[in-house]
Amino acid sequence: DTGVSQDPRHKITKRGQNVTFRCDPISEHNRLYWYRQTLGQGPEFLTYFQNEAQLEKSRLLSDRFSAERPKGSFSTLEIQRTEQGDSAMYLCASSSQGTLVNGYTFGSGTRLTVV
Amino acid sequence: RKEVEQDPGPFNVPEGATVAFNCTYSNSASQSFFWYRQDCRKEPKLLMSVYSSGNEDGRFTAQLNRASQYISLLIRDSKLSDSATYLCAVKVQKGGGNKLTFGTGTQLKVEL
């Protein structure tokens, strides 16, 4: 499979618990993006990496959120002390460097439900 | 004002109809433009890039109007299978990163 992979597909957690999601980008893509999408809204940018460097973070990314891409390949997004407002679809996308001709390729997403 | 705005719809159209969506963007320096299709509870999938001169892919036509700062998507001879949410995406900032800003999406329902 040469697409973007995300794991898990679904996650139900109790409020206050920590959760971690994983994203494996397309292998030749050095840029990786995390977005969050709630019902009726478009994807909202959270953060992006170029190789292992995290180059931009949205103000949506509170101090409870942290993302890493330690070896410039897969990435993890951790949410600490989850709140009900964190319930959303978390989407990962990747692209190559250079002009964005064909947009992003998104993974299938991780749907988080905080109960 | 949001950076990228779309009419959320829904647009309810009969099969075979022609339907058009617009998407406005606020930053005149915006560079790259895309239309994505998103089915219910699925990830967005690229429908087409939008080129300055306009471009067509089968029943779909995308256009860019830089003067008025909007892009459009025209769907001809709509099919039941076209029912989905259509998201516009804009690369707003210059330079590296290729960060895309998405609209809220326009919901299309094609009916018999």
Give a nutshell description of this structure.
The complex is a heterodimer of chains A (115) and B (112). Chain A has 115 residues and is mainly β. In chain A, 0% of the residues lie in helices and 49% in strands.
How does this structure look, described?
The complex is a heterodimer of chains A (115) and B (112). With 115 residues, chain A is mainly β. Chain A is built from no helices and 11 strands. In chain A, the strands form 2 sheets. In chain A, strands 2, 4, 5, 6, 9, 10 and 11 form a 7-stranded mixed β-sheet that branches. The radius of gyration of chain A is 13 Å and the shape is globular. Chain A starts with a strand and ends with a strand. Chain B is an all-beta fold. Chain B contains no helices and 11 strands. Chain B has strands spanning 4-6, 11-14, 19-25, 33-38, 45-50, 55-57, 60-65, 70-75, 84-91, 100-102, 106-111. In chain B, strand 9 (84-91) and strand 10 form a beta hairpin. The A-B interface holds A 31, 33, 35, 40-45, 48, 50, 55-56, 89, 91, 95, 97, 99-109, 111 and B 4, 6, 8, 32, 34, 36, 41-46, 49, 87, 89, 91, 96-105.
Structural key phrases:
heterodimer; A: 115 residues; mainly beta; seven-stranded mixed beta sheet; four-stranded antiparallel beta sheet; B: 112 residues; six-stranded mixed beta sheet; five-stranded antiparallel beta sheet
